[in-house]
Amino acid sequence: MKLKNLKNIGIGVLATCSMLFTSCINDLDVLPPDPDVVVADQLYVNQRGYEQVLAKVYGGLALTGQKGPAGDGDVAGIDEGGSSFIRNLWNAQVLSTDEAICAWADFGIPELNNIKFSPVNPFLEGLYYRLYHEIVLSNEFLRESTDAKLEGRGQESLKDVMKNYRAEARFIRAYSYWVLMDVFGNVPFVTELDGIGKFSPKQIKRADLYAWLIKDIAGDKDTKGFVSDMKEAGTAPYGRVDKGAAWMLLAKIYLNAEVYNGKPVPGNWDKVVEYTEKVNAAYTFYTGAYRHLFYADNNTGTVEGSFVFTIPFDGDKMQTYGGTNFLAYSATGGDIPAAKLGLSGGWGGNRARPQLIDRFSAGDARGIVNDNDDEVLTGMFYDNGKKEIDSPAKYSDGFGVIKFKNIAQNEENNPVNKDYVTTDFPVFRLADSYLMYAEAVVRGATNGTRAKALELVNKIRTRAYGNATGNITDTDLNTDFILEERGRELFWECSRRTDLIRFNKFTSSSYVWAWKGGVQAGVGVNGKYRLYPLPAKDLGANTNLTQNPGY
Fold first, then answer.
1. pLDDT in tens, 116-146
2. Residue boundaries of the structural domains of the chain
3. Distance between CA 209 and CA 232 in Å, rounded?
4. Into which CATH architecture does domain 3-229 fall?
5. CB-CB contact of 233 with 404 (8 Å)
6. Which of 101, 204, 230, 510 could bond 189 through an S-S bridge, CB–CB 3.0 to 4.6 Å?
7. pLDDT tens figures, 154-209
8. Distances (CA, A) of 317 to 3, 56, 66, 411
9. What's the number of CA atoms in the CB half-sphere (13 Å) around residue 397?
10. Rounded distance, CA 489 to CA 380, Å?
11. Taking the mean position of all CA atoms in its chain, how far away is CA 135?
């Protein structure tokens, strides 16, 4: 099952798969009249049928509907283009930080720019409902792929392959719950054991969801986690997940354990080292140019070997206004020559806040700023006119970000379709694992070494500088450096908000950036903004839910 062909594979979808529980969408028991929608008895007739539903589970992270890019969305009540997972995750994780600001005046965008969120923000709603769409799809696949279901259909021969398929579906569900836990805190909780039909899910506390996720993934003395049923790390078909992705997710959960539990968690740093060591041993660090990680052919050659979990995109077969299409087009405008990026134009919205540009030093290829005289756009940034932002609504205030390009290393292999981007999005990649290992060691992990942490960090910096001139020494390796290096290596990859919160800098006045709090110089903001509010729509529909404090 090649995920580059998700649009074709995932057409047949269970009627119940495309419906959410009562607090999101009502009338679960009514089958839609769409002739392209099939029910369980029509779909689960062979292995291919199960793969179609699994493809839809994966596809929901990339696509927004059955046809794309707009007009037939699979999350009701939301504009299809605005229901994209990556687009809304990026808005939540990057636009609210020191990495980006948007010129658009759409309702909800200035709130994100300024960290002044409300429960009716449509972009937060889009992220919330997209994630529950993924959870519902995963739960439905798990209900229909049990041993009992297979036996009842005379499909006992599929039991072994189904263990792996079920583990993949459980991973997508766990990943979705992790994002919800990270972004919204206490959230509605539903599994395949809850069945289908109208009901209002109960709310699970953040700390309880943290514990459930670890048990679901890794298991405990009484329960087997799904990681044991996954393919070995680095062996899954491209675009699908294996043990490496599960280890990385566990490391992410343990990395932020204190945030999720509201108190220190003994041994969490050792767990980060334990799981990142597994990841680091299973994947190959790409030593070529940093920019190639974000080219349209990043699913080929040695680049993909450093990707642990990837969401594929294809400009011909997976057309969407979200994903990397959004990341490339929303950041292109003004004088930026779109054609050199493999684009047909630009939307003139997102660009860098000055603090992002200032994070880089001379010689760091991750911070190169192109200008009007560049024949080839090899850098990550573009000089729109000035670095400082006097007006958030003026696209030319602030440098453009051209990290995600729709071109290939070899120009002869450039995508033909310039209207939609083919570049894949690396959700988890090896450099992140290296930096997590280093952070855990700096914070006190007993099963790692500073020498190894320094080696991994300098491996990243050697790639960035092209030689050892940017390498650091042991005395440089501290938490402040780690946060800054994460900002250099992983900018615009949907991790910044989580990092700033873990380092107690997201709402604090101890670190401010341009237009933080709606003030050009930046100010500290209310601590309630460390969590986003639950959507007002869901609170109105589900009386089991309690809003996050302060909203």
1. 999 999 999 999 999 999 999 999 999 999 9
2. 3-229
3. 26
4. Alpha Horseshoe (1.25)
5. no
6. 204
7. 999 999 999 999 999 999 999 999 999 999 999 999 999 997 777 899 999 999 99
8. 10, 14, 12, 21
9. 14
10. 11
11. 15
